[in-house]
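Journal club side-thread
Mid-discussion, someone asked how the predicted structure for our own chain would compare to the paper's figures. Pasting it here so we can look after the session.
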Amino acid sequence: MLYNKYDNLAKNYEDYLKKLRAEKDLNNYIKTLAVKMFSKEEAYTERLENYHKRYEDNDLYSSLEKLYELYYQIAREENCERSDEEIEQMLRAMSI
């Protein structure tokens, strides 16, 4: 089987959708996920750079950029409302 660079992205998206559908509190889940993904601006920048390199040949990058921009804005709002210690506690709790 020939590896397609979109296979991993499609699998991750499928897993993400399954988790979203199973969640009872979507808003809290998305806020928590956003903080986990983008607790620092460097993580946001690095993720976009990686996706740009892989998917610059079509509209997929543009869609990913919009999605991650939303996550980043949510993470910034959540981080402003919480102390660094609270954020660290959240991240530890999510990795259990």
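Post-session note: Residues 7-94 form one domain.
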